[in-house]
Amino acid sequence: MKISLLPEEVFSRIAAGEVVERPLSVVKEAVENSLDGGATEIKVSLFEGGKMRIVVEDNGRGIPFDELPLAAAPHATSKLRTIEELEAVSSLGFRGEALASISAVSRFELRSRAEGEESGGLLKIEGGKQVLHTPIPCRPGTRLSVEDLFYNLPARRKFLKSSAAESRRVFSFLREMAVAYPEVAFSEESDGKKGFSSSGKGSREDVLRLLWGGEGKIRRCDTASAHLSLESWFMPCPGRARSTAVTFVNGRSVNDPLLRGATGSLCRTLVGNWVFFFTLPADLLDVNIHPAKWEIRFRYPGEVYDTVQQAVLTLSGSAPSLAPGDFFPDKGRGAGHGGVFKGGRPYPSERAGRDEGESLFGRVSSPPLSLEEGERKEDSPFPESSGGEIRFLGQIASGYLLFETEEGVALMDPHAAHERIGYERGQKLSKDSLTLSRCALPLPVPPSLSLAVSGHRQALEDIGFSFSSEEGSLLLEGYPSLPGGLGEDPLRLLRSVLTEWTEDRTAPLEEVLWKRLATAACGLSVKLTTRLSPSEALALWRSLQLCEAPWTCPHGRPTVLALDSGKLQSFFGRE
Ligand code: ADP
Ligand code: MG
Q1: How confident is the model at residue 279 (pLDDT cuts 50, 70, 90)?
Q2: What is the reported pTM?
Q3: Which of 183, 283, 312, 512 could staple 202 via S-S, CB 3.0–4.6 A?
Q4: Which DSSP state fits 472?
């Protein structure tokens, strides 16, 4: 066959197939539009599981009469103008594709009355062809009605499940959205019968109680890493075989392999219902990888695992505050013991025994010092006490970290401290200092990395990477790291080591890895403005304690300002 351009009709149905898979896709896109449109009430009605009709109504800002045809045109959106805006998308929609796709494969009706307008408009489209655009009286807000989904795409229609199964998918999505947006009143109706509804009064716990039953103990915790924060909710369900986990990222319901990997492996020992809300700056997230926007890409995927792990440990009551091996092994364990992943999946219970019952901001004992006091090359602001207890109080707005020490308080410059740690580590490193860290990261698509990994899997496992296969795709479960590899991204490490090695086969793989890690150790830098989680701050403190010259950075600036009780007493005139 000769190459020729596809007729628009064929092209638009192919494109629609990427966005609209089943009734759930229609409801997801419509609800996202309602939320972007500022709705506080959203009602979803299904007839025959959405196969016959789907209606989504809201009380949002509405669409002006003249703009109705454009709303359903391909690549038409009110949410994005420039390529720069695509770098940091803050609305749920942005592709301008949903209504065009839905209307190409159904009998589609959009009624809307925009804010401040006296009357509204009606737009009808059948199989992508506009059949009516007329003014009509209607309520403020928007009402989308989709009939006979895939009537003109029989191949797709055949794959729809029973009405009950399709409704289940839609309504479980809707309930998740009600949890994510407790300030919005959601309601559902199936074949004319009312179902679940949320009040829209704004309490997430109330919505969860409604969904999970009032009796169970619902727990919440908040954790954070350098670039993201995580709000986690959990209710134990001891009798059940497995956990369920739902994840939202910046208010977006996602079903992402990275998140599935992390929550799947971490939540399975603590059986119950889990909901995770990740929040991070929009520019650290790529939401434009999947036409239906179910998947996303994190700039720092390693932090996802860390924050979920902290949350699971906190909610299981096993005291997360700091697992020393995560950032640097204490001397008692040394490389090859503490923080080393010996195979199998990481279980919270494995960690539980290592840290004794401390809360997130609780006290932790400092590890033994690397040097005798006498060997110190400079004066310590903590003459007698470097091995004592330390409590992280917080990071002040200017970026300094505030600690309570046994003597008083101390302020640390995280950048200067990290420079000192990196500098000494770079000087002292030997290959023996490698440890293995754990993670659960699916290798990203396109599959070039997975293919390269499969080809050299044995060689990679010999130097400390470990993988498992899950549903035909590879999961990175462990990677070699240096103690204290703050901010290192395991996937980037894997990719760069492999690329460097395969491009220039002169050095052994181990050598390539080694050089890469050593460079990272010296070059990595925490900025004063970097927001650190409590565990990172404590790890920084402890790593600094292990330095030979902890109290200045390599350029001679101080790392820590200590105010002991003597200084405090005299300042306040109490002596
Ligand atoms: P996107 O959401 O990516 O912009 P859509 O095809 O989903 O693309 O919608 C196209 C446009 O129609 C939106 O940008 C918005 O301006 C308008 N729109 C759609 N649904 C609604 C709604 N429920 N309330 C207000 N405006 C809406
Ligand atoms: Mg949309």
Answers
A1: very high
A2: 0.61
A3: 183
A4: T
Q: Which protein residue's CA is at the shortest distance from atom 8 of ligand 1? A: 96
Q: How far is the CA of 42 from the centre of ligand 2 (A)?
A: 15
User: How far apart are the CA of 5 and the centre of ligand 1, in A?
Assistant: 29
Share of the chain above pLDDT 70, in %: 83
At residue 112, what are phi and psi to the nearest 5 degrees?
-155, 145
Q: Is the pLDDT of residue 336 over 80?
A: no
Cα–Cα dist 308/318, whole Å: 14
Q: Which domains, from first to last, does the chain contain?
A: 8-203 (3.30.565.10), 214-318+329-335 (3.30.230.10), 361-575 (3.30.1540.20)
Mutation to probe ligand 1, out of 33, 79, 85 (largest number of atoms < 8 A from CB)? 33
27 vs 480, residue with greater confidence: 27
The pLDDT value given to residue 142 = 98
Spatial separation of the C-alpha atoms in residues 548 and 15, rounded to whole Å: 62
Peptide bond into 446 cis (omega under 30): yes
Q: What is the mean pLDDT of the chain?
A: 81
pLDDT at 371: 23
Give Dmax (Cα) for the chain.
96
Q: How far apart (Å, rounded) are the C-alpha atoms in residues 196 and 206?
A: 13
CA distances from 356 to 352, 364, 519 (A): 8, 9, 35
pLDDT of residue 339: 24
pLDDT of residue 478: 87
Query: If you take atom 15 of ligand 1, which residue's CA is the nearest one?
Result: 78
What pLDDT is attached to residue 217?
86
Q: Indicate the angle between helix axes 301-315 and 257-267, nearest 10 degrees.
A: 30
Residue type, 354: R
Which residue CA neighbors atom 12 of ligand 1 most closely? 71
pLDDT tens-digit profile of 419-429?
Answer: 888 777 767 76
In a mutational test of the pocket of ligand 1, which residue from 27, 28, 36 has the highest number of ligand atoms less than 8 Å from its CB?
Answer: 36
Average pLDDT for 448-462: 88
91 phi, psi to nearest 5 deg: -95, 165
- 72, pLDDT greater than 50: yes
Nearest ligand, measured from the Cα of 78 = 1
Arithmetic mean of pLDDT, 227-233: 93
Compute, in angstroms, the gap from residue 94 CA to the centroid of ligand 2: 7
Quick one: CA dihedral 115, 120, 126, 128, positive or negative?
negative
Pairing status of strand 466-470 against strand 473-481: antiparallel
Please give the structure tokens belonging to residue 31. 């609800």
Phi-psi region of 48 (alpha: psi -120 to 50; beta: other; left: phi over 0): left
Assign 14 to helix, strand or coil. helix
Q: How far apart are CA 419 and CA 47, in angstroms?
A: 63
> Rounded to a whole number, what is the distance in angstroms from the first to the last CA of the chain?
96
